[in-house]
Amino acid sequence: MKASYKILLFVGDFGGGGTQRYVLRLLERMDRRRFEPTIACFVPEGPLHAATARLAKVVPFPLRGHLFDSSGLAALLRFVRMLRAERFDIVHTLSDRANVFGLLGCMLARQRGVVASQRSFDPITDGFTRAHPLLISLSRFLFRRVPDRITVNNAVIADHLQRVVGIRRERIRVIENGVDTDTFAPRPRDQRLVAELGLRPDQATVGIVARIAPRKGHVTMLAALEQFAPAERPVLITAGDGPFRADFEVEVRRRALDHWVRPLGFVAEPASLYNLLDAFCLPTTFAEGTPTALIEALASGVASIVSDLPQLRSTVEDGVTALFVHPHRPDEIAGAVRRLSADRELRDRLQRMGRELVLRRHSLETMIQQSEAAYEEALSPAAL
User: Fold this and answer.
1) For the chain, what is the largest distance between any 2 Cα atoms, rounded to a whole number of angstroms?
2) Distance CA 131, CA 127 (A)
3) Torsion angle of alpha carbons 51, 53, 58, 64, nearest 10°?
4) Are 236 and 245 in contact (CB under 8 A)?
5) How many CB atoms lie within 10 A of CB 78?
6) CB–CB of 183/271 below 8 Å?
7) Cβ distance 17 to 47 under 8 Å?
8) Does residue 91 come out as left (phi exceeding 0), alpha (psi in the -120 to 50 range) or beta?
């Protein structure tokens, strides 16, 4: 095999979600003696853009509207020309529009050595909430025909792609989300943050770290707060940005919960934030795989409350490494918070076992090694 490979990573934008964090960690840790990365994107901006651009050249393919309107087709032709001119050894597409656009471009350019990452159940349900049936058919066709390897972060997604989308299982690699377990680790509260956020030692603190979108469960968390009498109500810390942020903050005021909610927006380095929490809550209904924020919380030794969904059941165990709740039942979420407050033994077990789970299955080093191995497999004669 060659001493080094030119690799193109295609992302949609540089928001603070799990996919973008995965790309940034990959750029920071990949073996530069073996891989020379370039980044393609649609939107060359976002909270992680500067950090990413310091590590690799960024080439934008801006879209003014639909993927396949005049601007989209012009961008697609430019992308195909770049693939033919640059002769990348590996192209790795990541998530929703980048997968559809990138895989179609790879097919037209007859690109070899293609890897696609799928971080939700279906190639089309991540970013396209109202996809046309033809677009759904196209995405599934591309996933079946173009990538040499498909990486997913959860075994349940692998099963779905095999059973529903019709992808051969031998082409799929499960690469669990990994985090830096030295950065995300149990440690005392940052007293500067405690004072800044006005937290009291006699008041429970719960948090959700996620993009603010309806399917992530932020409004359900507000409804869960309303299950408590004001004197015993926990503080809710929210870290994240997104299209629903303004609506969410309006909802906080409408419910008169301003005193108990701390909306922080995007937090670039959330490690110290997790250490403030008595419980991490993620009542998501999104058909995602394994949320990066959940792994960060577990690594930080935070007792976690998550939705009872198949993909999360494949990651954590109810009563052992997390507590499961119905994502549309605020009373269940409030009950889980009360249970953690009252049962020190349960809370200690979740904290200890969650941390041990991450050390065993979700190390950053393993994630990087498995990602690099997928690249080399995509280049092997058997894959091609």
Assistant:
1) 66
2) 9
3) 50
4) no
5) 13
6) yes
7) no
8) beta
**Dist CA 299 CA 187 (whole Å):** 11
Query: Can you give the pLDDT of all 384 residues of the chain as single tens digits?
Result: 566 899 999 999 998 888 999 999 999 999 999 999 999 999 999 999 999 999 999 999 998 877 888 888 999 999 999 999 999 999 999 988 899 999 999 999 999 999 999 887 765 554 445 667 788 888 889 999 999 999 999 999 999 999 988 999 999 999 999 999 999 999 999 999 999 999 999 999 999 999 998 889 999 999 999 999 999 999 999 999 988 999 999 999 999 999 999 999 999 889 999 999 999 999 998 878 899 999 999 999 999 999 999 999 999 999 999 999 999 999 999 999 999 999 999 999 999 999 999 999 999 999 999 999 999 999 885 544
* 207 closest CA partner among 285, 126, 272: 272
Q: Which ranges of 255-380 would DSSP assign to H, the alpha helix?
A: 271-274, 292-299, 310-313, 330-342, 344-361, 364-379
Residue with tokens 């109202």: 130
Q: Which pTM value belongs to this model?
A: 0.92
∠ CA 263-186-343, nearest 5°, is 80
